[in-house]
Predict the 3D structure of the following.
Amino acid sequence: MPRLREGADYYLSVRSSVPVAQLQEQFPRQCKVGSPDHVKAIVNSSRTGVPLTPLRHVPAAIPLRLENQYFCLDVSHPLATEMLQSGTCMFYVPGMLGEPELELFAVLRT
């Protein structure tokens, strides 16, 4: 488990009925990512969770699905550190982003 906490990068695969441009722009701002306690505390506020960055290129270790959009979690962010130390994560996605299917991937660094 320590390798996943300290030696991995995390990627989120998202499939949604929302148009691609809208998903790429709005998902990183609207989705709240973090430890369950943090996400529950920020859901109804303008505060953010772990930052998400849209990917231009999907790492080879992740299965590529052409209909999905991919995002990288900023594991250097203090909220990511808290999430990884807790060993649990939570994703909150508001209804305006459809009913997305999420897959989280941990890719070990070499």
Observations:
- The two ends are 16 Å apart (CA to CA).
- The chain has a mean pLDDT of 92.
- The CA atoms of residues 50 and 76 lie 9 Å apart.
- Residues 20-30 form the longest helix (11 residues).
